[in-house]
Amino acid sequence: MSADTAAEPAIEVTDLRMSYGSTIVLHGVTFRVARGEVVALLGPNGAGKTTTIEILEGFRMRSAGEVRVLGTDPAHGHESWRARLGVVLQSWRDHAKWPVREFLAHYGSLYAPYSTERITRPRDVDELLEAVGLTEQAGRRVGQLSGGQRRRLDVAIGIVGRPEVLFLDEPTVGFDPEARQEFHALVRRLAEVEDTTILLTTHDLDEAERLADRIVILARGRIVADATPEELARQVETGAEVRWIRDGERFTTSTRTPTRFVRELFAAHGADVDKLEVRRATLEDTYLAMVHAAESGRDGAGLPELGAPRAAVERVAEVSS
């Protein structure tokens, strides 16, 4: 890879638009993914995530805008370009009668003509089976695998050709906690050791925070945030909600200085303060606030609503009546 090529983004999307008849799905989406970067595309159902991924893969024609993946317009991608991509789709095509190892070896052989001086394709099948946790199932027929094992096979199919860009659409659906953890380690290894560029969609904010260098949030076909997990987290560090009971009456207040507020509250009312708790906003609160703001047509989300589901609760004191 030349220095100029390495400097180019692996994925470049400019003013991407998509409509189905009178229904507009994507409204001028623009973002870039650097080579070797892991980017998570988040958003509620119907936000346009899968449509965006399918356009980048060359499976769907866009209505307008500019798209480049590894320097090529996906709408005109040739076979040698497609060999540089890996795809893990939500839907699964059944190959029930094939033994797992035989199927992967056959599928991988299709990539052999596209080896280069820098990249040897396909990946060793035994190493791949171990990487996705299917070594013990290597001799079983695909149709005998459990749902989670089939999903692991999907991932193996996606990376057997040593892709330079890997698209993962809801990759851990059906994974148990152990398999999910192993998959996360595999994704980081692909990015850090093999310099694979990864764009994934997920509904799991914790997964996005663990895996992604950047998080792009889509809502109603528009990007409402594009930042690192740390940058998003900083937006909620100062917001907190304090709740307490005094003389049988419930009180709630929002503050950017919760420690100071609690200290002053006890100084003023002491033992009369009961069931005190401080609720600090989480990254999920930020995500929900941004999505709700976009869906309601508001320009900015402001501070997240601290009463949102799964808000982290920090009980700083509890004084019995």
From TrEMBL:
A Pfam family of the record is ABC_tran
Query: What positions does the domain ABC transporter occupy?
Result: 11-245
Recorded superkingdom: Bacteria
Q: Which GO terms describe its molecular function?
A: ATP binding
Which UniProt key words apply to this protein?
A: Antibiotic resistance, ATP-binding, Nucleotide-binding, Transport
CDD domains from the UniProt entry? ABC_DR_subfamily_A
Where does this protein reside within or beyond the cell? Cell membrane
List, alphabetically, the SUPFAM superfamilies matched.
Answer: P-loop containing nucleoside triphosphate hydrolases (SSF52540)
Task: Please name the Gene3D superfamilies in this protein's record.
Answer: P-loop containing nucleotide triphosphate hydrolases
| UniProt topology in membrane | Peripheral membrane protein
* Keyword flag Heme: no
Spell out the InterPro entries in the cross-references. Answer: AAA+_ATPase (IPR003593), ABC_transporter-like_ATP-bd (IPR003439), ABC_transporter-like_CS (IPR017871), ABC_transporter_ATP-binding (IPR050763), P-loop_NTPase (IPR027417)
Task: Check the record and name the PANTHER family matching this protein.
Answer: ABC TRANSPORTER ATP-BINDING PROTEIN
Q: What is this protein called?
A: ABC transporter ATP-binding protein
